[in-house]
Amino acid sequence: MADDLGRRTTRHAVVIGGSLAGLLAARVLAEHAERVTVVERDRLPEGPEARPGVPQGRHLHVLIEGGQRALDELLPGFMDELRELGAPKVGMPEDMVQWQNGAWYRRTAAAVHFYSGPRPQLEWLVRRRVLADPRIELVEGTETVALTGDSSRVRGVRLRERGAGAGGETRTLAADLVVDASGRSTKASDWLAGIGAEAPHEETLDTGLAYATRVYRGPSGGTDTDAIGYYIVPNPAQVYGGVVLPLGDGRHLVTLSGLRGDEPPVEEGAFEEYAKRLPHPMISDWLARAEPDSPVYGFRKTANVRRRYDRPGRRPAGFLATGDALCAFNPIYGQGMAVAALGAVALRRALADPRRTPTTRVVQRALLDASRQAWDISAGADRKMPGATGDAARSGTLDRAADWYLGRVLQRVAGDPVVGRPFRSAIALTGPMTALFAPPVARAVLFGPPVETPSDPPLWREA
Questions:
Q1: Per-residue pLDDT tens for 324-342?
Q2: Strands in 261-407 per DSSP E
Q3: What is the pTM (predicted TM-score) of this model?
Q4: Which of 247, 287, 370, 378 could disulfide-pair with 346, CB 3.0 to 4.6 Å?
């Protein structure tokens, strides 16, 4: 078969990984293949419950607007269903008390919204919708141990029941196309080496950020604010972070973060004590009045990693990577779920593009492009953090010029909606970064003084 992934002659596609990126890729591939098989290591829960294969599933997840639009495009009516399940909607900057770069943000009218419900709830809803398609089959409790084929073309995967050990019996599942959606810990480099192909170069940037999360019941009784969340954002001069966001049903997720060597603890009393390191007692005071509703969970693997399948190399046709297996971000920026959905939209458009033959190389480049803005945001911010390591931590002349300009943007975002609106749209992946250089924004950034911001936490929305 020619290297044309969009043709109906793709009889069988295999997707490695049954998380968001894999499920959404399967949804798209079912429009082109006769059948799609999703291979998942976990035994998936029947309801919206956490599972081991998503190690950060108990931590804070937000669905930003770029992801909302993509999910509605892939699964029409999805956001209506998510709202019906009670996922809280948070407007920025209106609904949050936020401190960043030494300033309190004005609580002006919301420019963007995100949803802060539990990650397992959203994944369960996607899984239910996708697996209702009779063309898509789920194989659970099974791990991929190898690719079949050679360096010119992948012909399928070799599978083994999870827990069977290295000597366990394997079976081969033939496929015309294999998509790696196995996540941040992908073994694709080993799989490709096993068929004589080259692994992609990995770009990395690691700040050593670690975080810990606990669920709380919010303080009972009266309230002294109309805010529904709190956010203290770390920066190079102040490396501690804290966020409080609603999950629904009176529960809140609280996440504290720090850098390597000073990670937030997972012990009960120590978690609340660590919150006192934040530059303002706002979150610590909230914790003192709230009721714990879960253990404390820690997470340490937060490096940005991008695998450059777009660069030259001996790689086979019929093999693609998507989601965190292609580009994984520091989770603190809340981009992962949105980029998984945007990648699936990019896959759909590349396969259906009448102007270009959807070869493996063309489609893989489209998937990488779908993650590019999120990478620029995450890696660009992390590159300035103290102790950042990795080849992507280096900055050139253009990077330094952009950092200077964006530094002035950040000085104005807290108080000036002219700058804040395009900035928040870019962060939400609904507007381009280039909008920050539009004439009205550039005038405010280059020539206007920073707009005055509140001297104390703004407990009430601006009228």
A1: 999 999 998 999 999 999 9
A2: 291-292, 297-299, 304-308, 319-321, 327-328
A3: 0.95
A4: 370
